[in-house]
Structures are given as C-alpha cells and as structure tokens.
Design a protein that fits this description.
With 784 residues, the chain is an alpha/beta fold. Helix content is 40%, strand content 11%. Strand 2, helix 6 and strand 3 form a beta-alpha-beta unit. Helix 5 packs parallel to helix 6 and helix 8 crosses helix 9. The longest helix is centred in the N-terminal third of the chain and has 22 residues. It is elongated. It starts with 16 loop residues before the first helix and ends with a helix.
C-alpha cells in the first residue's frame, strides 16, 4: 500500500466561523463567475450552459465537508450540477491552476460535470450521469471492504456522496440502498442537497419524512440538517413551537414563494392561515430581517452541518444519509425561483455579487492573500488532503492459457468459461480474481469456481450445511465470489468500483462478472458509467442470442454485440471453441493491467460445439500461430475447392460457426467454392480496419498497412461476395463488404425471438444453414 498523508480530520468547532464564511462566499462567487465567463466567451451558436443556482445550493455543504470534516484518504462524489463550486473549491486549496477558471466547458478545460478521467483536478468519481454518482462511493466502500478483508487494512477511509434531491427519483439509487452487499458500510455517508427543486419546477410532494423512512427501513442511519441556528433559537422562544409547526406544514411551493417578497407583503403572506402564536413569535423580528430568518436552513449553516456529519461518524455498522435543507440559488438574486436551474445572472447582478465579496475586475479570480486567515486555512486544507497517487497500474502474471488445448468432444463457450476461471484459481494470479453475479452464478457456470474459492461475506456466517452441498455455499471473508440480488444495475456499479480498486484502494483486482446477455441492457447505464470512469473489468454475457432457443424471446439478445463494438474502452469478443475462450479470457485479464489496459466483454453461448474443426485449424496453423489469429479477431477455418468455380466468403461468429461450415459443404455440392472465416472478435476486426483508415486521414495521405481483415481475405479473393451470419443484429457484420470492396449479404437476428428448438429459431430468424446457402447463391448470381 502506498502511504498517503495521514492526518486526522479537523474539528469544525476549532475553526473560525467568520473565516469559513469568507471562504464559503468566495466559492459562491468563483463558481457563479465561472459559469458567467463561459457564457460570455466567443459565440458558439449554441448555449454553453452551466448551473449557477444548483451550484450555489451546495456551497455550504462543500465548505463544511472539505474544511471541517475530510481526511486525506476519504473519497467524495460531487453532485453533477455543483461542478463550478467544486472546481472553485479545488482552486482555493491549490489543487487547480487559475487558468482553468476561464475554461469551464471548453476544449481542454473543465468538464460540464465532474469527470475523474478528463478534469485536471481529478475528482474521485465522475457524476455526470444522474443517480449513478450518488451510489458509486457506496459500491466503492464495498470494494474497499473486500480489499481490506483479502489484503489487510489500508488507511482508514470514508466515502461520501453529495447528491441532489431530484436524484432520488432514479431507481438505481433505491436498488443500491436495498442491496445486501452494501449493508453494514458504516464508512459511507450520502448527503442530500434538499433544495426541493428539479430542472423545471419546485417539486410539489418531496417529503423528507417519507424518504427518510425508506432509508431507515433499509437499515440506514438517518440524520438531518433542517434548520440553522437562528431559526432553532426562534423555536425556543414563546410561540416557537407554533412557528416551527407552521413552517413544517408549508408546501414547498408556498415556502419558496416567500423568497420573492419583502416587507409587509412577506409577513402577511407567511402568516396567512397561521396560528396567532406564530405572529407573536415574530414580533421582535423586523421586516428587513424576516426573510433572512425564514431562509435560515440547516444546509447553509456550517455548524449544523458539522454536527450532522459527526453523528454519521459514530455509526460504525450502517451507512448514513444526511438530509441537508438548502435553497437553490442560495446567495444569488435567483434564489428559490422555480425556473432558476438554467438561469444566468445579468452583468449588473454579477457586478453586485463581485462587490459583495470585496473584489474588483482586476482581482476577481484571485485566491485569498496567503497571509490572511482564509488563505492560511485554504493552504492548510490543501496540504492536509493532498494524496500521493498509487503509481502505475500493475500487470500481474496472467498465464497465456489456463489448460491444454481442447481438441475433442462438444463444449459450449459458457462451459469453457467456467472451466477456465476455475483453473485460474490455482494460478498465482488467482488471489486477485473476484467474481460477481446478479443471482445467476450457477446458471452461468460459476459453480466450479465458487467451490474452489468460496462466497464472500464480510462477516463470518454459519453455512447451515452449505459446505457439504454440491455447490459449496459457505459465505466467509476469504471468499472471492460476490453474489448480488437480481439487479444488473448494481452488478455493473459494483463491477466498475472493483475495477478502480488500484486507483482508490491501492490493490489491483481482476473483476469478472457474469450476467444473462439480454440483461446487459438492464445495467447499460452503469456499464457505460464504469467505462467512462476508466474502470477495468471483464464481463461475460451468457447465454446470448436466439440460440438459447427454448427460453423464449425475453431471454434472447440481439443488440448486445453492437454495443460491444461501439462502446469505448471495451474489447468485445465472441469465441466459438473452448480453447478460444481460454486464450481470450486470459488475455482479457492480462489487459486489465498496464497503462494501455481496457475492459472486455465476452459474448458466450450454451450451445455445445463440436471441437473437431478447431483441431483441424491447429494442425494447419500451429498452436501459437492460431492463438495470435484468434486474439487478432479471426482466422480462416475451412475452405472448399474453387478450381474455376464461383466462390463466396462466409464469415461467421460464435455459435453460428457450425451453420457456416455446413453451408460451405452444401455449396460445394452445388458447385460453389467457399472460404469460412471464424470471426472471434468483430470488434477487433473493425478496429484493425479503422486503425488503417484513421492514421491515413490524420496524415492526409494513404498509409499502406493492411488490416487483419485484409490479411484474412487476400486481394485475389476480394472480388468474391461475402455472406455474414451472426446470432445478433445483421448490421453488426454488415460493414465487411465495404471494407473489402465486395458485395455482401448480411444475415442476423432482426426480429424478436420466441420459444422453440435451435433449428426452429435459426430458421425463423433467417440464420440457418439453408439461409446461408441461399444468401451465397443470391450474392453470386444476382448481386455480382
């Protein structure tokens, strides 16, 4: 473990409140001005945007957390729309160069939302996708617990998520809260910026007590920062109970309507329908101070916030949530306006705000004077929270293969996957492997692996005879398989955080997940989120396609192959034979390390495949030569004589390779020669082609470097038509013809499946042997 700056958290009570208020106001100013500047740069023809009001509501929470609570190894996810305030804070504590303040939402500048891969001040988590950043630290805390249980305790770390109240509309938040894997994480705190507004409106029925009940029933500690010290003191005076009850009973719309009013009108509107005791409680409050008193919410009171956070620290065995009541647009002329989400301050309003923080146009971007109390506190906070990076991503010694070449019998790729993983458990790299599934471990062939390494639980549990069963289900801290509930969103959230364990926890893990292939789409948002964060993991989607015939259309996938090809940072492979699975899984695990590492997606099948054609390919090419071709994306699997006859190139992937081979034999009988190419990775084949084109475009000239596809189909064969067949959408391989310059018929699954035999479903979707033969004849005689 790389050491970090080890200092205890500060005591907020030791901090000068006036100094903190100065910093709070400077964060508000800089965050607001950054958005203003971004929208006054050279015209773009489109709105630049930014969120001055949403950022303002978070200013006090950020100040309370950073200056009065955080330790060096703590991790924080910041509300997406609070990005300007976050960057302003980072600038003040010396973690961001001044030049970036005028580059919000500009090329090479600060991103619209916090991004751990693209922002120069490197937030711990990206939070641009609403709801996902809110629970990412929760799963990161689960990953930290796993690392500590397996490799020894690292530096104490707490995990915080700062989220808007509207983010609680996202279903993934509640899935995460209810997930047993996240239970007992006393080092996690979710802070809700409860400003009662969403993008377009004041939320009419957001009831904190109801939401708090959900958290409480899930076993969470619930705290609140509802009212500041001024209002709390008013509640203690005669009539204070009535005053509090009246404010509590107000609708969100009625409360925020007060922000537009002043003087007698404010008082009259507030007291409308109130108990006469409320008016008596406010007798000593003059009109000028009334709005300030009524707007004194706990989410803008640094002391109240500090007290709430301290109560969360005392909870060692359950996660915490803090409901911090705030005002959207706090401190700005747009405070509480229902339409302030995208509103921008006018130039005059910016001038007034600049004056209020005692700056001018020459000094408006300045940090505090380093010799001032505020400057010293910022400098000390930056030094206290500075972390040393854990260094470059290690590359553990993953073997090139886990077992001998499989040459005989029939084996499905899903079965081969389970066998390979089980064998890797005995290798040196086995201790770094961790698997996860959404309650489908047995049905995705992880039984052997689980029997070998055990099921993970942070607490020792009685196995109730589980260790004596065929599947040894005996949870313990030493286990390496994490079983989640049936939530693919939670699976990918956990997978993404396990895949960042080196960066966040100093321990390199090799995370592998299995999920029913069609249900990759259920967790797609979280999968994309993990990839955007540069997390590294392996996911096996299995079983895939309509070849899972009897299960029916609800369990049959078609578009996942396209996703695998199109998502950045993800290498998609779809092997056919058992040894291909072995080679490709080992290579995928190896690619999780190193500076150029990436995640991988294996699309697998339950269809048993005869291994004899692969044995023949080994005999022709040699094991090492064939392995290189497999990893490059494909190889020539079979050929029938041409001898002056018409000829066709048949390209197949995964479970459809047998149909391609049978079609080649039938075509031979029809007087047509055929070459069968087994594409083990449409993704890598496509990347190889684009790798030839992109440099040529950049260089402005042709670069003669053949792609792997062009090596598989030599010039003499490029006048032949291509027939592609894939148990996925037909367009997945439809680009081959354009790459080669040949006519093509692309066969695939372009309709929803149903129950039946494999033969039935291949016929119904047009990917059977007969369909391949007919497509070849059509291509030769009608398209040529």
């Amino acid at each position: 473990m790389v050491t970090v700056t080890a200092m205890s958290k500060p005591d907020a009570r030791d901090l000068d409140e006036d100094v903190l208020h100065q910093i709070e106001q400077r964060i508000l100013w800089l965050g607001t001005r950054m958005v203003d500047e971004a929208n006054r740069r050279e015209p773009m023809g489109i709105k630049v945007g930014g969120h001055q009001a949403s950022s303002a509501s978070m200013v006090s929470i950020l100040a309370a957390l950073w200056f009065g609570h955080l330790r060096a190894d703590d991790k924080v996810a910041v509300k997406p729309h609070a990005s300007p305030a976050y960057h302003a804070l980072m600038y003040l504590i010396g973690a961001l160069d001044r030049s970036y303040l005028t580059k919000l939402r500009a090329r090479g500048g600060l991103q619209a939302y916090p991004s751990r891969t693209k922002d120069p001040d490197v937030p711990d988590y990206s939070t641009g996708s609403v709801g996902l950043g809110a629970v990412a630290p929760l799963f990161s805390a689960a990953a930290r617990r796993y690392c500590d249980d397996h490799f020894g305790d690292g530096p104490p770390a707490r995990f915080f998520a700062l989220a808007g109240d509207a983010e609680l509309d996202e279903g993934n938040v509640w899935e995460a809260i209810a997930e047993p894997v996240t239970a007992g994480l006393g080092n996690f705190t979710l802070i809700i910026d409860l400003n009662r507004q969403s993008l377009d409106r004041i939320i009419p029925d957001i009831q904190e007590t109801r939401l708090a009940g959900f958290f409480h029933n899930a076993g969470w500690h619930v705290a609140e920062a509802k009212y500041g010290r001024r209002l709390t003191a008013a509640f203690e005076r005669p009539g204070g109970d009535a005053l509090r009850n009246h404010i509590d009973a107000m609708s969100n719309e009625a409360y925020q309507e007060l922000f537009k009013l002043d003087g007698d009108r404010l008082r009259d509107t507030f007291l409308r329908g109130a108990d006469p005791a409320v008016g008596r409680a406010l007798t000593d409050v003059d009109d000028q101070d009334l709005l300030g008193l009524l707007a004194d919410l706990g989410g803008h009171d640094l002391s109240t916030l500090g007290d709430a956070l301290d109560t969360c620290d005392s909870e060692s065995d359950r996660p915490s949530v803090v409901f911090a009541y705030t005002i959207k647009g706090w401190g700005l002329p747009t405070a509480g306006d229902p339409l302030n989400h995208a509103a921008l301050l006018t130039e005059d309003q910016i001038d007034d705000l600049r004056c209020s923080v005692e700056l001018d146009r020459e000094s408006e971007w300045n940090r505090f004077d380093p010799d001032s109390a505020a400057g010293r506190l910022c400098s000390e906070t930056g030094a206290r929270l500075r972390r040393d990076p854990f260094g470059s991503q290690p590359r553990p010694a993953v073997p090139a293969r886990a077992s001998q070449v499989v040459r005989r019998g029939t084996v499905s790729t899903q079965e081969a996957f389970g066998r390979t993983l089980t064998r890797l458990a005995a290798e040196e790299v086995g201790s770094r492997l961790v698997t996860a599934t959404p309650d489908v471990s047995v049905s995705t062939n992880l039984g052997g692996w689980i029997n070998k390494v055990g099921v993970y639980s942070h607490d020792e549990r009685a196995d109730h005879g589980g260790s004596e069963q065929l599947l040894k289900w005996a949870p313990a801290p030493s286990g390496q398989h994490i079983e989640l509930g049936i939530s693919e969103m939670n699976l990918f959230m956990l997978l993404g955080q396990l895949g960042l364990s080196h960066e966040h926890h100093g321990q390199h893990l090799l995370p592998v997940a299995t999920v029913y292939d069609p249900f990759v789409l259920r967790g797609l948002d979280a999968l994309i989120y993990g990839l955007y964060n540069a997390a590294r993991f392996v996911v096996a989607g299995t079983p895939a396609g309509v070849t899972l015939a009897p299960e029916g259309g609800a369990h049959q996938s078609s578009v996942t192959a396209s996703l695998g090809m199109e998502l950045p940072g993800l290498a998609y492979v779809e092997p056919c034979f058992a040894t291909e699975v072995d080679w490709m899984l080992c290579e995928a695990l190896d690619r999780l390390g190193g500076a150029d590492g990436e995640s991988s997606y294996l699309r697998l099948s339950t269809r048993p495949i005869d291994q004899a054609p692969f044995d023949a390919a080994i005999a022709r090419t040699g094991e090492q030569g064939l392995r290189e071709l497999v990893l490059d994306g494909g190889y020539r699997l079979a050929e029938t004589p041409v001898d002056g006859r018409p000829a066709v190139t048949i390209v197949a992937t995964g479970a459809l390779v047998p149909e391609a081979l049978c079609a080649a034999e039938e075509l031979d009988g029809e007087g047509v020669g055929a070459t069968v190419i087994n594409v083990t990775s449409p993704d890598r084949l496509y990347r190889s082609w684009q790798g030839q084109v992109r440099p040529a475009l950049d260089a402005g000239r042709a670069i003669r470097r053949p792609s792997h596809l062009h090596r598989l189909i030599p010039p003499a064969e490029r006048d032949r038509p291509i027939v592609s067949v894939h148990d996925a959408a037909s367009h997945t391989l439809a680009w081959l013809g354009s790459a080669i310059g040949a006519p093509q018929v692309s066969l695939g699954v372009d309709r929803f499946g149903e129950s039946g035999t494999i033969h039935d479903l291949h016929e119904l979707t047009g990917i059977s042997t007969g369909d391949v033969v007919n497509a070849a004849l059509l291509a030769i005689y009608d398209l040529a």
